[in-house]
Structures are given as C-alpha cells and as structure tokens.
Amino acid sequence: MELLPFTRPSIDEATIAGVAEVLRSGWLTSGPQVKAFEAALSRHCGGRPVRAFNSGTAALEVALRLAGVGPGDEVITTSLSSVATANVILEVGAKPVFVDVDFQSRNIDLSLVEKAISRKTRAILPVDLAGLPVDRDHLYRISMEKNLRVIEDACQSFGARWKTRAIGSFGDLVAFSFHANKNVTSAEGGAIVLPDEKSATLCEKLRLQGVTRNGEDGMEVDVLGGKWNLTDVAARIGLGQLARLEEFTARRRALARRYFERWSAPGCALPPRDFENSNWHMFQVALPEHAPRPAFIARMREAGIAVGVHYPAMHLFALYRALGWREGEFPNAERLGRSMATLPLFPAMADTDVERVCGAARKVLADLA
Ligand SMILES: Cc1ncc(COP(=O)(O)O)c(C=O)c1O
Question: What per-residue confidence (pLDDT) applies to 1?
C-alpha cells in the first residue's frame, strides 16, 4: 500500500512548463519572475509593499532588523512553533521571551503577554500555528498601548484571514514562508509585507549584501546584508501556486470539515472549528496521555498513513535549555509539544483518505488504551 503523506504540494503542468521557460530564458536568479511574484503578493495584501526572500526564516530575520531589534532587546514569542521563530531572535543578538500558549488555539496566550513585557521588550512575534490566526484585535491593542513593534510570523497562514481581511493586508511587519510544505510553495521561499514604502530600500539592502547600485557602474555598501534573494525559478513556481490559492484553501477547508465529521476516536483534543479565518495549513490532534506519540506514529505508518510532528516545545531544546529555560515553565506548550500529531491534509487528498485516517486512528488509539 502506498504511504499517504501528511502533505504534498500540487504543482500543475502549466507551472512546470513555466519553470522550463525560465530555465531556457537564460535568467535564473532574481529578475522578472521575482518582480511579478512580489507584485502578485502585494495585490493579495491589499497593495502593501512586499519583498521576496529565499526562506521564511530569512524574511523573519530581516523583519526583526527592520523593526530595529538587536542586542539587549527582548522579543516576546511562543515556544510552540518551528524553531526558526526563536532562532532568528537569537541571530539578531536579542533574547526570546517565551510565554505559554492557549491550550485550545495552540497559539500564544495574549493574556500572558503583558506580564512578560519589560523595559527591554522591543517587539512581539506571534505565530499563526497551523494557519489559525492569532487574535489581531487583541494583539495590536497590546502593541499600541505598550508601543511595541509586531513581527507576524505568518509563515503558516498565507491565505488565512482575520475577520474578512487577508493576513498580510494590514498590521506591522508580516513574514510568510513558501517552503514546500506550505499552502502556497515556491519550493523554498518567503516574503515580508512592509508597513510602508520607506522601509523597502533598507529591506532590499538587508536582503542582498547591503548593496545599493546607482548609475551605470555605481555601487555602495553602508549596511551589513545577507544573501537572501529568491531565484526566478522559485518565483515562477510561486506564481503558478498563487493563481490557485482560493481553490487550495477551499479544498483544505472541506477536508478539515470532513475530519470533524468523521473523527470518532475518544480522548483527543481537536483544533478549533474555525471556517472563517484559518487556511487549514494543518489538521493537528492532541493525543490522549495514554497514547505515546512515537507508538501512534509507528502504528499509523504500518496502516499506510504518515503523521507529522509540528512541533516540540522549543524552550526544551538543548540550545534553549543552555540559555536557562526549564521543563514545567510552559505547561500547555509542553503538553501539546509532546502529544500533537499532524494528520494528512493537502488539496490533492481524496475525501476517502480522511475516512481512512480516522478509521486507522480510532483503531490504533483503542489498541494503545
Ligand atoms: C511558524 C514558522 N515559522 C518560520 C518558518 C520558517 O520558514 P522557512 O522554512 O521558509 O525558512 C516556518 C516553516 O517551517 C514556520 O512554520
């Protein structure tokens, strides 16, 4: 039996042909396709300026630098995310300050943020885990009142909405990822939505070695930049994907609804039933305490179904323990980080695959009881 993956990109023939054209064009790296991708992303984000990057991680790191975050600063974030979320804070020389997540939403518990604010706090970096947006009204109320910058880690929530408005069409700095597992992919890639045109010049410099060009042969470097530009090959994939965003999101929502209808294994915590805002990047269930996740994953694989792990609570990684974090500090993140299982969900999945996953999970969890 062929293994049902937990995700798989849907790349159509028109996109493959488009990539072949780029390969034949003689222009492989950042060029017209990147410009077209940025323009299309900007249209999706209500006309706000967008700059493309070669990963979501790079986009987050540059967003932090654009927000002026550096050594001596603190950034409040969640421990339940890709480790990229906190690694970039360390990369710019600042300190991540974790707060726990809300058990239901699995996102940063905004009611705990105010207590974590100190004189050194410069920014909040919330994550829309599984594509479920953090409450933007509450988030920006805090940031306005406390005069903090916001870097939205929207790496998983491209295509999601907050009360009818597209994520990225409002707010401070918003970072997206177009990694192969994301709802819209460019193989690897990312983008920052900027709050104003003024920041675009610095953003472009930070993206590529700090270089400014002028005239026929002028070049100046006045700031340290990285090597984070997107290729035209990747941008062409992204353009092909972007054209199908509505279709992909609708299909993901339909599959998520089906999971809610068909799920029958007792004792699991299901995600919030959000069909207004979430882009359903992932469908994650928290397993009951009696079912160790490694055994669940192994038994599901035997049944021909792949299960993903997104993510262990990152404050318990050795790098972060060495910086002082300990077990027991963030009980919800730790419990979810140990027990959450990402079930298969991707647009090309058949309705009957949902039945198969639900049936297998029910049996495996009964056996593990
Ligand atoms: C929440 C979150 N933040 C950051 C990243 C980093 O994105 P990328 O893999 O494109 O660097 C990811 C992707 O894995 C993510 O899911």
Answer: 72
